[in-house]
Amino acid sequence: xxxxxxxxxxxxxxxxxxxxxxxxxxxxxxxxxxxxxxxxxxxxxxxxxxxxxxxxxxxxxxxxxxxxxxxxxxxxxxxxxxxxxxxxxxxx
Length: 92
Description:
Elements: H1 2-13, H2 20-23, H3 32-51, H4 58-77, H5 86-89
Helix pairs in contact: 1-3, 1-4, 3-4
């Protein structure tokens, strides 16, 4: 299923397990801690919904993909991930 694949790719590309001291360095382009928490909540929400049998539509995939790319760009600006697009990090 496409949503499960997207969730796995995002979880592989974004460092959700970094210690807060490493995530919050003082200089920020958006609060990395809050962005990581928000995206993790979105991913967990979809994992629960998928487990309950919900079938996401194309708009759902697009929305989660867009949110993930925006968070990735902010994390890259803060030096937490490489400066490349999320689509370059995750296989197509």
